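Every protein is a chain of amino acids, and every chain bends into a shape of its own. The protein below has been through that process, and both of its lines are reproduced in full.
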Amino acid sequence: MPEPLGTEALLALDRQHVWHPYGPMPGRQEPLVVESASGVRLRMAGGPGEEPYELVDGMSSWWSAVHGYNHPVLNQAAQEQLGRMSHVMFGGLTHEPAVRLAARLVELTPDGLEHVFLADSGSVSVEVAVKMCLQYWRSVGRPEKRRLMTWRGGYHGDTWQPMAVCDPDGGMHELWSGALPRHVFADAPPDGFDAGTDAAYAAHLEETLARHAHELAAVIVEPVVQGAGGMRFHSPEYLRVLRDLCDAHDVLLVLDEIATGFGRTGALFAADHAGITPDVMCLGKALTGGYMTLAATLCTSRVADGISSGEVPVLAHGPTFMGNPLACAVANASLDLLLSRDWRTEVKTVGAGLSEGLAPLAGAPGVRDVRVLGAIGVVELDHEVDVVAATRAAVREGAWLRPFRNLIYTMPPYITGEDDLARICAAVRAAAREG
């Protein structure tokens, strides 16, 4: 084993060689160094002459570590699977962890989603979903149906097709607007989970979809919560509107549940709030409890049968690490762990703690809105956040947050206790004041 690097040496090498997400090279902001993690806490390396310290993780590692870190059940699942095989190709072979996971996802997701394509990241699962929809229509003799429709304010990932259905104006992918496929964008849905249906907006969706139905392969949206596009909440009733419109105009419906799946909004899947089944559903992030990368694209028999009866009767997609046994074994254990606990009460408890702790910010100077849904808390500012200042303020309060644009938000692990929730809320309040 090589000798561990000191903090200064590690950061020097990081600056020289490591390209961090959404940053320049070399980086302009020095990252904090994590030594280990357990429960809801990250153990951080201190600077020169400083002792290590702990931060409560308010981000669940980009919304994935719903059980916290270093969980004995997930550790055991990984260790046992390592003793059998960590990986084997999925072309021409199969194995129990993947088969069990696929069957479990079919059981848990809305009725009618029967077939599971396992991928290795959420963005790739969206690529697969788009490919499924395009190939379905080509296979049934409608190749002209090759555009997508979505609503503004969305975010679906950083690879090519997902970027094309992210908000084209003001988003992080605006740079590529001249090169990406051109799709159809409706207005963003009205704010408010409990707001009900705005008849004028429903009519706008209908008019937009009907006008383009002849060329639309699918509508793709994030259900109930628009994540990295703005952390906005909308009424589940618009999902029912979209389901009815897609049925009426013969268009497929794709729900991107990568961020919302596995309980984050208070329902196991955000589609459950609306009681609908999409034609295609994308899952990721919390699928393995934050242990490793894995995603899934589920579809109905209509979609699978259409593709399989076409001129090219295969879905031509096959990631090298598709169906990775190690990831699938941990995902199975993570689902068992989630469903063995009263996750609904856990999420409600986190939501109640966030509502109480963030309430003092309502109406505060510089704050445009405070909103909570499930285990998601959002403070929207009336100005671009100073990420460096806001992060420092949160760290001083003992919590890790990652603000962006004009948003300071938190998605804590479901197991976060009362005291740690209070610390996260204090960090959000401090970040809002100083950011």
